[in-house]
From TrEMBL:
Residues 1-194 form the ABC transporter domain. This is ABC-type lipoprotein export system ATPase subunit. It comes from the Bacteria. InterPro entries: AAA+_ATPase, ABC_transporter-like_ATP-bd, ABC_transporter-like_CS, ABC_transporter_ATP-bind, P-loop_NTPase. Keywords: ATP-binding, Lipoprotein, Nucleotide-binding, Transport. Pfam families: ABC_tran (PF00005). Signal peptide: none annotated. It comes from Leifsonia soli. GO terms for molecular function: ATP binding; ATP hydrolysis activity.
Length: 198
């Protein structure tokens, strides 16, 4: 199991949510839902090991963890394709193989015709999809995604949800913080922070 939370809660002056016990298991798509400010991103940070919870404990194996942040980030002047081939090149793949894999992933995420433009030329939704594609390219055991569909239209949101489901189907634990009811419905299980903490 990549990560298990045992009676975990967190406080920034005030408690954000009631203690949570949960195992994020391989092959499962888990949604973290609740209104703005209830602690969804904080809980992702705890799962990632970047935030130490105020109470409770986090048990983890040495799983490879990738986090897709809410705001896409990249190098404005660098080609889209180069952003995506980097994880494969870092693993030692030859350039041609890395580029082929990158182009396939771009197509999967509806960006097949954007390979040769610069990151700075992408729209917000395209940049967000590139971040998701790059996360998939890094072949994580645990994928944490913050609001993946916030900048996407309905059709593309449904497509991206399908890709994340597919990634879970290939054995990753996928955890998504979301406001989006469609994304919520696509999840296997839900942690609802709405009623806790305040
Ligand atoms: N480092 C910090 N120091 C103090 N307060 C913080 C810190 N990080 C987050 N908070 C506060 O904790 C609360 C929860 O923040 P968090 O970003 O986890 O919520 P969220 O549910 O992800 O919100 P949103 O849906 O708007 O992204 C907010 O009130 C936020 O201002």
């Amino acid at each position: 199991m990549p990560v298990t939370l045992v009676e975990v809660s967190h406080s920034f002056g005030r408690p954000l949510f009631d203690p949570i016990s949960h195992t994020f298991a391989p092959g499962r798509l888990t949604g973290i839902v609740g209104p703005s400010g209830c602690g969804k991103s904080t809980l992702l940070g705890i799962v990632a090991g970047m935030i130490r919870p105020t109470t409770g404990r986090v048990e983890r194996t040495s799983a490879r963890c990738t986090w897709v942040f809410q705001n896409p980030h990249g190098v404005a002047q660098r080609r889209v394709l180069d952003h995506l081939s980097l994880p494969s090149l870092a693993r030692g793949a030859p350039r041609r193989e890395a580029d082929t894999e990158a182009r396939e992933l771009l197509t999967t995420f509806g960006l097949g015709d954007r390979a040769d433009v610069t990151f700075g030329a992408l729209s917000g939704g395209e940049a967000q999809r590139l971040m998701l594609a790059r996360a998939v390219a890094s072949r994580p055991d645990l994928l944490l995604v913050d609001e993946p569909t916030a900048q996407l239209d309905r059709a593309m949101a449904a497509h991206v949800n399908g890709v994340m489901g597919h990634l879970a189907g290939s054995g990753a634990a996928v955890v998504i913080a979301t406001h989006d009811p469609v994304t919520r419905d696509a999840c296997d299980e839900i942690i609802d922070l709405a009623s806790s903490g305040r």
